[in-house]
Amino acid sequence: MTGIPASEPASTSSISAVSDQLAAAQGRGSAAILDGYSRSVMNTFGPPKRVFVRGEGCNVWDVEGRKHLDLLSGLAVNALGHAHPTVLSAITGQIATLGHVSNFFATPSQVALAERLTGLVRPEPVEGPGALRQAQGSVEAKVFFANSGTEANEAAFKITRQTGRTRIISTEGSFHGRSMGALAVTHNPKYREPFEPLPGDVEFIPYGDVDALRAAVDDRTAAVVLEPIQGENGIVVPPDGYLAEARRITSEAGALLWIDEVQTGMGRTGRWLDSSREGVVPDVVTLAKGLGNGFPIGACIALGPAAALLGPGSHGSTFGGNPVAAIAGLAVIAVIERDRLLDNATAMGDRLAANITALDHALVDHVRGRGLLRGVVLTSDVAPAVADAALDAGFIINAPRPNVLRIAPPLIITAEQIDSFTEALPMLLGRAQGARA
Ligand SMILES: *Cc1c(COP(=O)(O)O)cnc(C)c1O
Question: Which CDD domains does the annotation name (predicted)?
């Protein structure tokens, strides 16, 4: 047998075959690439607006070489911006050493990330008469690794079914993903109805309404699932105290509190978990988007008795927890800590909101959200037109609702970059207004 020696250098001809293909693809220009997209990629997202080929920091360049300021971070994903050197060297070092083993085996990076994540979700020790919270400081916490937010929520859904109860309370306007289980707890009828029947026993109540929550939860409730801020619904922030009340209500009923921090977590709102703002310790928390800075990874973390509800054979994933994804997560956490990016998210988010408020523009009703997860609520339904005008002017934002702009830049964004957008905003709003008139 003539096997390839392990020391064989990567074949230069095979590498150049890949780069030739890439160069040929780029050389086609955006019109031809978008045409190829429409013919060979399923139309689940509608037509793409641009073709991007390169990113660095908070900027991305399209195939024609035009630079754009990425104020959306690939949908709250690129927390450290594009091509971050620490993430890059962590990932390349890991994949050159050990890229994948099955879940029959452990790897040091997987365990290290699990330990970091369980440390982040455990409650901080609190001063004063918080005996209950103090006791929670020693609470057990365990991670199931997945590859996306949807999958993290799917694992959480299965945890709820192991409680011996089946009823789940979710909220109007919620978004938790598109697999059948995650969709079952997602509210939007447009997403749900074509795929019914979905896993059952899910009830939707108004978001942010404590009385509705109290009325809905009883001793048949397995779990309440909540986003701390509804991102896909347009950065909807519940009243202060809502999550703390949800914690109280679920604890009293013996139900799990499942907090979906896929969009709000990993520093996006200026904290590792947005729900920690109210001192809430969930039973289950899901993370994804910002966790791998673009490398696919999701995590479902369960605390206390919930940490033991999934046992051997009850769930699994081939790729979940692979060492490359795990080291990406470790790199993200390390850089957020080293560069004090939680503080930057708070400061830059406040600056963004203050700048926009100071414009005192007739089309801007108010700015909502926290840290660098912000919604600009407009006085008319021109958000998609504003997002298009922004893209033409080199700014990436989106319109989760007809009257709401979402701004979720990398946590590394600078004051200068924030100001460049807010200075351009009146012009973008004017263009959208003009296009409508
Ligand atoms: C994006 C999102 C999801 C789904 O995550 P995917 O990685 O797209 O599967 C789930 N929950 C929330 C709150 C999200 O914002």
Answer: OAT_like
